[in-house]
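Q: Two folds, back to back.
A: First:
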Amino acid sequence: MGRSGVSFLLALLLTAFTAPAQQPEAALVPFARANVVLVQTTAPSDSVLQILQHYLTERGFLLDTVDAGQGLLTTTVAVPARTLAQQMKIRACQTPAGWRLTALYTIEGPLSSATGFPAQHLGLESAPNKTAFRALEDVARALPRSTLRYSRAKVRFGALTKLEDALKMPW
């Protein structure tokens, strides 16, 4: 390979490694590592919040924030948790395109500690992250006259992030 061939390869590799990561567009079906459920509905925002609030409390979720002015609803986690609902923090926020739902779930450790992980469409159906993602889908399906789409967002927390910090991070 000549000098121009090596230069071309280096330029190609440099472009590949420095290009910004592109987020996939919204899909009609969940794809591997999807962690956002986008909901388009014709229901008014105050009605959406009431439906979500009722649906979540009926299923044992612990409400944290309900703000009609900002179009925001969040749940909180309990440590130790007795149910999946108490292990999950769901965030539903209104956007110009509809509603954006994300969730994290906790896995408890020793001494009443817990770690937060994103709910995402990955792995076996019985995997904790996929179980939490399916629960998030069920919440989205509770909204009337709605269409679901799926997307992926960058998550800014991981296994080494303190739970208190992970719970504060919107994504």
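A: Second:
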Amino acid sequence: MAGVKQIRAARVVVLRLDGVDAATAAERLQRLGMVHAVGLSSATELSVHIEGGKVDVVVIAASPLPSTGVDASPAGLLPPPAAAIRAGIPCLLLVDSMSRTLRRSAMACGYAAVMGVDSAPRLIYRRVGALMQRVRRLGRARAAPDQIDAPDAAALKS
């Protein structure tokens, strides 16, 4: 898991897509030490934060949608915000009731993790840390081939 300093410095956005109060959820994370937790109520506000480079993890509080004409996954989930996916920012989905099917559907939609909305704030805190660690590891793995290739290229030139 990510170090305590990294988690405290994390720029976490809690996005409310239905009746869940994002400001309250952000406040709970702030009490645990995530001083940069912010509650938003629209994907437009989220896009502004992402474009400004102010987001490390997005926590989305939403319930599965009833079967409507909305573009959703088979389980009725809204997909994660496109801006977050494009930027490579992990999205944690908080749902009213967990099931294996819902978890699989959410992961297939592009969410990095799924938890119950009633999960203890400390568990959400830990999951955010784990997501940050995963992003950092992926970044190192992507950078590693470049670092290996660079010395080899220099050796070939001499």
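Q: And?
A: The first strand starts at residue 12 and ends at 16.
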